[in-house]
Amino acid sequence: MNIQQMSGLAILQAMAKGELPAPSITQTMPMSLVQAEEGSVLFHATADDKHLNPLGGVHGGFAATVLDSVTGCAGLCFLNRVSEQNPHHCSNIKLYSGFQAYLAQ
Questions:
Q1: The model's pTM
Q2: pLDDT for 38-69, tens place per residue?
Q3: How far is the C-alpha of 34 from the C-alpha of 15, rounded, in Å?
């Protein structure tokens, strides 16, 4: 599989299916790409006791890192291979998120 010949969406779909390896950040942050469709990505992420701030809540950096991955991948869903005829892409991204509180025990 040659990712240089693939669209952004095809790369993400291959990652979601396990045909391409997940990025190394998924070893640091327990998150995974579950689904990728044109204009939409679905990630699962779960914070644990390694991701807590000094007060015992989930550190804001955890949410920021997940959001960075989600928005980057959502944008990638719109990208085809860049060519001289098609050098730029622009899109609007709507982000829907749901967070459940993690309480240290």
A1: 0.69
A2: 778 888 888 888 888 898 888 889 888 988 88
A3: 9
Distance (Å, whole) CA 81 – CA 57: 41
pLDDT at 49: 86
Structure tokens at 38: 């044109």
Q: Give the CA distances from residue 27 to residues 23, 31, 45, 53, 90, in Å, rounded to whole numbers and listed in that order.
A: 8, 8, 11, 19, 30
Reported as type and span, the H/E element at residue 11 is: helix 8-17
DSSP of 32-77: EEEEEETTEEEEEE---GGGB-TTSSBPHHHHHHHHHHHHHHHHHT
